[in-house]
């Protein structure tokens, strides 16, 4: 009996060691998706042992976020290429104009002879924009711009020349002037007549999203295409000269993971960075391992996107990509941390973190009838697979016709907050109604109130739930569940937003005490 019990204990001990070993391996291993948040159109470079990544945030200001990593899996926002893309009615939300889903799109990021180059393009400005700096982490960035707007271009330096490749289906190449002020005359030519050819003629999306790389003397051009009745697909073209001729082939068809390029580690391992359309949370980054065979990069593991990667484990996206904010500022602190972006260009006279220290004050400076047309909605990403945003707000100084509170922002948005009718305030919830119709409303008889939105992105459930509290402890479900939907008119994942706008009188304001974002799956907050 003793021997049997001893043997049983030994087996349990061995099993325990095995489980611990498996857990230890799991903790040291990165997993896909790399970032469960809207970080599309990535461009990644490595400078010595540090990686830098740019991405797309379109109509948000500031724009073209820059992120940094030391291990390729854990990323932190370090800056933006520009504070304001352009001054026009669309970007400024003036005269009924807007630029949802436009702004600036896919960027190209390069490092050449000690200078960082970040280029993007915009239908809103009608131009190609190139930003340069010798210090990517601190700036400043110098702006160069010219017409036209080159769609989904890639910037490349070769033999003392500056090239740009762009297009959709038919891809073209041109040389740029040395001062980046425009293109050289008589240098434009068609590079690949039909870059979509490897997937056939029946397509939803022609080859675009160009990113060019050079390895062992050969050039590799990455593109995405989408066959009808198929999925987003990686196409790679290869050439001995930058100007071609190019031969192409399908490089990856799995899970719709596509569009991106190549990156190597200091130890010589190779990966392809790509992204997946993942419903309401947005377009989320993946990494796949790459091996070189017969001078071709071979993506994935047996042609598949792996769940795990031989890289350090991904940590929480808090605080590197999103973060809570109590709006307390010390001397020398930025007014707003990098996790925040305004919806379109803000009016900087109508927000402050200094007028009432420890609070974000949003003022209503004009009359707006639509939430999506309102200025100074301050946003940051939601994160998957589950997350929540919570605010505490003082509404004592609202005026009749004002609306303020917490949003989950996309074209099919949801709002929860406070509205004012004469001297009476009320808690309201609204969704999917660009005319400002209210779905639920109850009287509010105090000046401080709490709101929370919980987002469930698991398996593309894509539901948002709305709550209020009068004391910050007891929460009441309110209004209706929002079925979130990723829509092309906005072309980005849902974002939490702090808002205040007037429909009758200007001059009212609200004070946000804090915003707290939580990864509800792991209960991580900051």
TrEMBL record:
Pfam families: GH43_C2, Glyco_hydro_43
Signal peptide as annotated in the record: 1-26
Feature type site, description Important for catalytic activity, responsible for pKa modulation of the active site Glu and correct orientation of both the proton donor and substrate: 152
Active site (catalytic residues): 41, 208
Gene Ontology MF term list: hydrolase activity, hydrolyzing O-glycosyl compounds
GO biological process, one term: carbohydrate metabolic process
SUPFAM superfamilies membership: Arabinanase/levansucrase/invertase, Concanavalin A-like lectins/glucanases
Domain of life assignment: Bacteria
Keyword Lipid biosynthesis in record: no
InterPro entries assigned to the protein according to its UniProt record, in alphabetical order: ConA-like_dom_sf (IPR013320), GH43_C2 (IPR041542), Glyco_hydro_43 (IPR006710), Glyco_hydro_beta-prop_sf (IPR023296), Glycosyl_Hydrlase_43 (IPR051795)
Domain Beta-xylosidase C-terminal Concanavalin A-like: 325-517
CDD domains: GH43_FsAxh1-like
Keywords: Glycosidase, Hydrolase, Signal
Family to which the UniProt record says this protein belongs: Belongs to the glycosyl hydrolase 43 family.
Protein name: Beta-xylosidase
